[in-house]
Design goal:
5-stranded antiparallel beta sheet, 16 strands
Length: 454
């Protein structure tokens, strides 16, 4: 039934016809997906931050096709991770928020099915092929660690993992998996050793609860940033970013020590952005959950020695492209109804990616109807080259904290205004209409009202 949703955005995908999955690799590569959790696109040394030290990710970036203008379509952890697992936009995989809201629609679904609303959200993954499931069919072993919302790791198609999942204790978003990185790397390292011993290609989902709150960095790192004159909340967050970087270094060093790095594709992305509040242990507006750059933008890195040239890529990239690119690298047929682009031909050849437009969406944190993402829709957005248009919607429960001076629609020139301070919609009405039409073609919305664009 869910496959009826998988028809959108295909006209925007262009694939090199001379490339085929059969030619992807003579030997199946290992694949390591590294996911940061709640980190701004600015908060890395290689992205220009003057205080946060991230030497291991910096090195990875120097060895990668590095997209500094990468994006996640939805800037909230659960839907963002579901996109990486299924290759689909949020409105397609339907997991639009972190929790079910206490609404009559959700109560009705629970009565009709006899199932908890939380279970009904998780059940979306049962209708969809996942990256670890498809890799498993090609002979891969796979390991889940860190954040994982969709029940047990087995339910997502992983052969190995740490998360027992709902309804187990602390099963909301990872339970035992959340210890990875914070309490060592042994579960991942033991899995790698097992895969090597069995002579199997492997897929690692490394999604540690870092630099996510609670911000409890090692004292040595907190003291380092506190000595810079920073307040406690900011110093702790900066220290968490470096702590996460250290764990990435441990993982990459493991691959090198075992002689695995040459035949391993490493992909890096963050699930959503973050602006650390200066007066509390939380995030500021226009970051996590929002469609603004500090919510949706993230560096995206693809590193595969001798296969992918290490270079800065100026094109737009989106995490919707990661799943098809991973499958292609493994020689696995990409589902033809996935909306993302297989980037591997361009990454291997160095050719320009033939795309100038990407899309995204934002929903309420709590889901109004677990089977109808549109009911919780708060924003849709499009970026065409340097122009970005945001449209607001009246989805429920409307818990997004809108700035009091925000008007809709919102149009920004990211080339000269990367922090989106100057709304140019009023002075560019024709451009607003054209970009809004692009959004409507991408995902036709029928029930939600656009705020401020009659």
């Amino acid at each position: 039934m869910m496959r009826l949703f998988l028809i959108l955005a295909l006209p925007f995908v262009m694939v090199d016809s001379a490339w085929s999955v059969e030619a992807a690799a003579a030997e199946k590569p290992n694949i390591v997906l590294i996911l940061s959790d709640d980190q701004a696109w600015t908060d890395y040394s290689f992205m220009g931050h003057e205080q946060i030290d991230t030497p291991h990710i910096d090195r990875l970036a120097s060895e990668s096709a590095a997209f500094r203008r990468g994006y996640v379509p939805t800037a909230l952890c659960r839907p963002s991770l579901m996109t990486l697992a299924t290759g689909l936009y949020t409105h397609q995989h339907r997991t639009s928020g972190n929790n079910p809201a206490e609404t009559e629609a959700n109560a009705r679904h629970a009565r009709e099915t006899g199932k908890d609303s939380r279970e009904l959200i998780i059940s979306h993954i049962d209708d969809l092929p996942t990256v670890p499931e498809l890799l498993g069919e090609a002979g891969y072993l796979s390991h889940q660690s860190g954040k994982w919302w969709e029940g047990s790791y087995q339910r997502g198609g992983f052969t190995h993992g740490m998360t027992a999942g709902f309804p187990k204790p602390r099963g909301r978003h990872g339970d035992a998996g959340l210890t990875i990185g914070r309490e060592g790397m042994e579960p991942v390292f033991d899995f790698i050793d097992e895969a090597v011993e069995k002579e199997k290609p492997f897929f690692v989902w490394y999604a540690p609860f870092l630099p996510h709150t609670p911000h409890t960095p090692p004292t040595r790192l907190f003291d380092k940033y506190k000595a810079m004159g920073l307040g406690d909340f900011v110093a702790k967050y900066y220290a968490m970013c470096e702590w996460f970087d250290e764990t990435c270094g441990q993982l990459l060093e493991k691959l090198e020590a075992e002689g695995l790095r040459e035949n391993t594709l490493v992909v890096y992305v963050c699930d959503n952005g973050w602006i650390q509040s200066t007066d509390r242990n939380g995030y500021a507006a226009h970051s996590k959950r929002s469609p603004y750059e500090m919510g949706t933008r993230t560096p995206i890195l693809f590193s595969w020695p001798d296969r992918i040239d290490a270079t800065d890529r100026p094109e737009l990239c989106t995490s919707i492209d990661i799943a098809p690119t991973i499958l292609a690298a493994a020689g696995v047929e990409v589902p033809n109804n996935w909306p993302g682009m297989n980037l591997l031909p361009a990454l291997e050849s160095g050719k320009k990616i033939r795309r100038d437009t990407i899309f995204g969406e934002a929903f309420a944190h709590d889901i109004a109807d677990v089977h109808k993402p549109e009911d919780s829709l708060l924003y849709r957005w499009v970026i065409e080259d340097d122009w970005k248009l945001l449209l607001r919607y009246d989805g429920q429960p409307g818990s997004m904290k809108y700035p009091p001076d925000e008007t809709a629609p919102l149009l920004f020139d990211l080339n000269i205004d990367p922090h989106e301070r100057n709304n140019l919609a009023t002075s560019n009405p024709k451009l607003v209409v054209r970009l809004a039409h692009k959004i409507a073609q991408w995902w036709p919305v029928t029930e939600r009202k656009v705020v401020g664009l009659e």
